[in-house]
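## retry 2 of 3
previous attempt timed out at serialization; input unchanged, resubmitting
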Amino acid sequence: MATKTYYTYHGNLFTFVKSGAKKINIKFIEAQDGKGYFSTDRKNLQNLIESDKNFGKKIFLSKGLSTIKDLTTDNTVEYIEDVTNYEDAIEYLTKNYNVDSDELKSPKNVRDQAKRLGIYFPNIR
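## retry succeeded, writing output
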């Protein structure tokens, strides 16, 4: 299945698309260019995004990028996939990067510090 990447001018964006009565959450991750990106190879999800009322207004199809990782060809972003919650992210940042835990009081602070350090936790929900 072909991977498609979508972008928004809203940076980090948490939104959803509807599949009947069900809402499917999608998370755009802000890149260095200030845009938020989301990639999927799930054809059903691609169809839902492209038929959503925000497609073409707030969400756009990115040309030329096959995945979010393509945005970081210089490997400046480290993907930490085994961290699945903010408590683990705080522990990871304090142990591995000596970040003061007082600077990690909220999920936004955790995301900001990780971004500053070139770290991305893709599995935090």
